[in-house]
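Worked example

This section walks through a single chain of length 264. The input is the sequence exactly as stored; nothing has been trimmed or padded.
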Amino acid sequence: MTSPAVSTRSASEPVRSGTAHWLRSYVMMTRWELGSLRLLLPLIVALQIVIGGGFALGIGLFFDQMPARNALFLATGVAVVTLITVGMVLGPQLVGNQKVAGTYDFLWSLPVPRTTQAAAWLTVNSIIAIPGMVAALVIADWRYDLSLQVSPIIVPAVLLTIGTATLIGYAFAHAIPKPMITQMITQLLIFTILGFSPINFPPENLPDWLVAVNEWLPFQHMAAVVRAALTEGLVDNVGGSYLILGIYAAISVMVSAWVIGRRH
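Given that input, the structure is written out below as tokens.
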């Protein structure tokens, strides 16, 4: 009686590595992520555009005449909200759906560098989020007759914001085993971002203790770096905001690496 064959890597077989292998793996993972959303992706992008533009218009209905400064906070804030919610709300929910559908473990079994999965996820989140951000800015600029002054730092500001949000969402979505708990956290984040973070309104609208709390959270700083790239005179110490976001991104990478290490 023969024993069943076991597939093992030969000792002489070279381990696939290097930049070319990483790039091929990244392209493959990006195609897989986009392919898995092929029916939903157009709808998700359209929904982000509607939400971003609709939110910019809807908030204005609360005011007969919105002051110019408040309108600038609202317009730039709505753009940031679209970036944050995709990375920290929609992204983790999609990971939760993968766990429920059973494709999550399949992805972990693929012979690709784990970093390519994170990079592919960041690429897909950017494809989803950036059109909504642009739509929100265009509609708000039309609605409130703003004087936005777009500077070249908008590129690193947007990339850092969506990158940090995605890494934070990536970290807790993979670290928490139960999709229902992930879902509850994303709902809490929506409540916190919209109601208690100075993204769509000036920080002075909040109590002093809540202003102090937000100094240690990433949301206000995400708004600060993007706002500094679109306006003048609304943001102070933007360098500190870049530093804090960098720290959050680094911590999220370490948490994700820890989760990956546990699965080996």
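What to look for: Residues 21-262 form one domain.
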